[in-house]
Amino acid sequence: RFKVQVDRLQVDLKKQKDELDALKAQMEKKASVMREDEVRNLEKDYQRKLRDFERARRLYERAAEAGNGKAMHNLAVMHAQGQHGGNRPDYRTAAQWFRRAADHGVVDSQYNLGILYGRGLGVDQSLAESYKWFALAAQGGDQDAAKKRDEVAGRLDAQTLAAARLAVQTF
Predict the structure, then answer these.
(1) Predicted local confidence at residue 1, as pLDDT
(2) Phi and psi (nearest 5°) for 103?
(3) How far, in whole angstroms, is CA 92 from its chain's centroid?
(4) Are 117 and 123 in contact (CB under 8 A)?
(5) What contacts 56, CB < 8 A, 6 or more positions away?
(6) pLDDT tens across 85-125, in order?
(7) Which of 7, 72, 136, 160 is 20 to 30 A from 107 via CA?
(8) Neighbouring residues of 162: CB distance < 8 A, sequence distance ≥ 6
(9) Is residue 46 over pLDDT 60?
(10) Are the beta carbons of 59 and 31 closer than 8 angstroms?
(11) Stretch 39-43: mean pLDDT, rounded?
């Protein structure tokens, strides 16, 4: 009975390895022309199953350079979490990728820029910029961003708040 269970486990492991190998081949082939849903699948499957951050980074970079905003966001997250080949967060590079994704309308990147500017991580601290990014994320439907925007607004003087609101309008 034990041998049967071991044999089944070996078959299951072989099947999983074959599935992972097929997933790798498919992602490498499609990375430069991925649609948003394919990037989401890459995010879920590749990160969870393979845990191969360097390979994921390379694939995200290819998709990001092809103009995929979600891939830009995922690269930024990898840099912010230290999954970019280093052991420590690289907030400066994360901010650059978040900015590119935010310019493509990725609401989560807009929110994250609000955090980075509010704390001065990877960018010069600026509550006006923090307000702008939270406000843009709120316009995109992020309710938490609306709360953060209002918190930051309470810390700005009237003139700076007016300038920040104008920056949102002209974005």
Answers:
(1) 35
(2) -65, -20
(3) 14
(4) yes
(5) 42, 46, 47, 50, 74, 78
(6) 666 889 999 999 999 999 999 999 999 999 999 999 999 99
(7) 160
(8) none
(9) no
(10) yes
(11) 70
Query: ∠ at Cα 78 (72, 81), nearest 5°?
Result: 140
3-state secondary structure the chain: CHHHHHHHHHHHHHHHHHHHHHHHHHHHHHHHHCCHHHHHHHHHHHHHHHCCHHHHHHHHHHHHHCCCHHHHHHHHHHHHCCCCCCCCCCHHHHHHHHHHHHHCCCHHHHHHHHHHHHHCCCCCCCHHHHHHHHHHHHHCCCHHHHHHHHHHHCCCCHHHHHHHHHHHHCC
Q: Tokens representing 61?
A: 């970079």
Model confidence at 34, pLDDT cuts 50, 70, 90, reads low
| CA–CA dist 39, 46 (Å, integer) | 10
Is the pLDDT score of 8 beyond 50? Answer: no
Tens digits of residue pLDDT in 9-24: 444 445 555 666 777 7
| 67-80 average pLDDT score | 89
